[in-house]
Amino acid sequence: SQTIHQWPATLVQPVGSPLSLECTVEGTSNPNLYWYRQAAGRGLQLLFYSVGIGQISSEVPQNLSASRPQDRQFILSSKKLLLSDSGFYLCAWSEAGGEETQYFGPGTRLLVL
Amino acid sequence: AQKVTQAQTEISVVEKEDVTLDCVYETRDTTYYLFWYKQPPSGELVFLIRRNSFDEQNEISGRYSWNFQKSTSSFNFTITASQVVDSAVYFCALSEGTDSGYALNFGKGTSLLVTP
Fold first, then answer.
1. Is B42 touching A (CB cutoff 8 A)?
2. Which of A45, A46, A91, B4 could form a disulfide with B103 if both were Cys (CB 3.0 to 4.6 A apart)?
3. Neighbours of A10 (CB within 10 A)
4. Residues of A in contact with B41 (CB under 8 A)
5. B101/A106 CB distance under 8 A
6. B90 vs chain A: nearest CA distance in angstroms?
């Protein structure tokens, strides 16, 4: 069966510090991968998606970036965090082909102070 | 523009009551997919159901049932005989298969509180 992992689970970072969140998927090959952000009291917003290694599409212009160095690894980064980057970050995967169901990881709670 | 509208921000019911969560969507595509996810206090999104636009059959899974009506662009979710464990935020989502790789457009969620 497939599983998706995210770490860290929680993170408190000062403004201006770098960020690296990691997401890995097990039990599948060539998945579509997604990063979503959920701000407090709001719905989920798609940040990035990837259909293959090195292929990243950005949905929201911001100071965040994503990378996919391996087939089942998706990384969310920032060089300098802003207060507005605080939120709950969720990684999701789906089977290749597009219209498949997305399954979400446990999420990372980020607080920027 | 908001593609998925969940008009009910918060709902509070007493255990064993039935409750319906509303979802209205907007799309110009003829092929699309609708989803419901549950987000318990732990935060993880739990997949509940997926329907494609060509299948309007209602579905029942235990105490959960879904009513998909293309004529009104609605995909409502009913919990029968609610339980305390049903307390969570429920999200309706739409996938249109556009340039965003079938990314999900989420509603803002309905927070359901079931009290004993």
1. yes
2. A46
3. 11
4. none
5. no
6. 10
Q: Do A106 and B37 touch (CB under 8 A)?
A: no
User: Cis omega (within 30 of 0) on the bond before A61?
Assistant: no
Q: Does A6 touch chain B (CB under 8 A)?
A: no
Using the Cβ of A108 and the Cβ atoms of chain B, whether some distance falls under 8 Å is answered with no
Average pLDDT per run of 10 along chain A, which is 113 residues long? Answer: 94 97 95 91 86 88 90 96 94 82 94 96
Three-state SS sequence of chain A: CCEEEEECCEEEECCCCCEEEEEEEECCCCCEEEEEEECCCCCEEEEEEEEECCEEEECCCCCEEEEEEECCEEEEEECCCCHHHCEEEEEEEECCCCCCCCEECCCEEEEEC
Residue B115 · residue B10 · CB < 8 Å: no
What confidence tens digit (pLDDT) does each residue in B28-59 have? 888 899 999 999 998 999 999 999 898 888 88
Segments of chain B with pLDDT less than 50: none
Q: Is A11 on the interface with B (CB under 8 A)?
A: no
d(CA A11, CA A90): 14
